[in-house]
Each structure stands twice: as C-alpha cells, then as structure tokens.
Amino acid sequence: SVTKAEVKEVDAGFEVTMVVKGRKLSADGEGRETEVPMDSYLDVAVFPEETEELGDDDLPEPLILEKRLIRSGEQTFTFVVDERPAKVGVDPYIKMIDRNPDDNLRSI
C-alpha cells in the first residue's frame, strides 16, 4: 500500500516522495493466514493528471514506471519527473494477488 505521498517543485522538475508499506500473507489449505517476509520486485509508478478520454478505472501513461524491491514494513522512494504528478502507485496494475488493491494508488 501507499501510505504517504508528497510532491515539491525543484529546479529539475517535480520531486515525488512516496512511502510504501509491504506486507505478505500465506494461507494454508484451511484458510488460515500467516504473515511471511516480503521480498518482491513490484512496479512503482508516478502518474500525471488523467485525461477525459480515459475510462473510470483506466490510468494515464506513467511519467515513471520502475520495478523496485519491496520488503515487509515501510520504505520510501523518491523520483524526479518533468511534469506535475497527480498520483503514485505500487503495483498499480494489480499484478499481485491483493485483497485491498484500492490502497495501491494515492493522489498527491
């Protein structure tokens, strides 16, 4: 999940800082879940403002899209982009199984 996101204008463009919280659960055959260490490369992205031609659930072309190592707990990522960002996300295209994908994106 993305727990915090900030943007500030800098000489090179816009500096985007996002805090991501990683958590992974494993379920046994009877549905009992146990937290296990997370150590996975996931997509991390910064998105511009949405345009009118996009559908309700569509995302615009990202300003940045990179694979980053996500571990259990919180970690901070910082990017510099040329265009003012509107949203950040971790696993924004929901490639991993996620019971609550709504917290993968955050507006800034």
List the helices and strands and how they pair.
Layout lengths: L1 E9 L2 E10 L1 E4 L5 E4 L2 E9 L16 E8 L1 E9 L5 E4 L14 E3 L1
Antiparallel strand pairs: 1-2, 2-7, 3-4, 5-6, 5-8, 8-9
Summarize the structure.
The protein is mostly beta strands.
**Quaternary organisation:** single chain
Number of helices: 0
Helix/strand/pairing class, anyone? mainly beta
Number of strands: 9
Biggest β-sheet description: 4 strands, antiparallel
Outline: globular
- Please state the average pLDDT score: 92
The N- and C-terminal alpha carbons lie at a distance of 15 Å
How helical, in percent, are the residues?
A: under 10%
Round the Cα radius of gyration to an integer and report it. 15 Å
The strands making up the biggest β-sheet line up spatially as: 6-5-8-9
H/E topology pattern: EEEEEEEEE
- Residue fraction in strands: over 45%
List the uncertain runs. none
Describe the protein.
By secondary structure, the protein is mainly beta. 0% of the residues lie in helices and 56% in strands. The protein has strands spanning 2-10, 13-22, 24-27, 33-36, 39-47, 64-71, 73-81, 87-90, 105-107. A four-stranded antiparallel beta sheet has the order 6-5-8-9, with no helix packed on it.
Keywords:
108 residues; 0% helix; three-stranded antiparallel β-sheet; mainly beta; globular; 9 strands; four-stranded antiparallel β-sheet
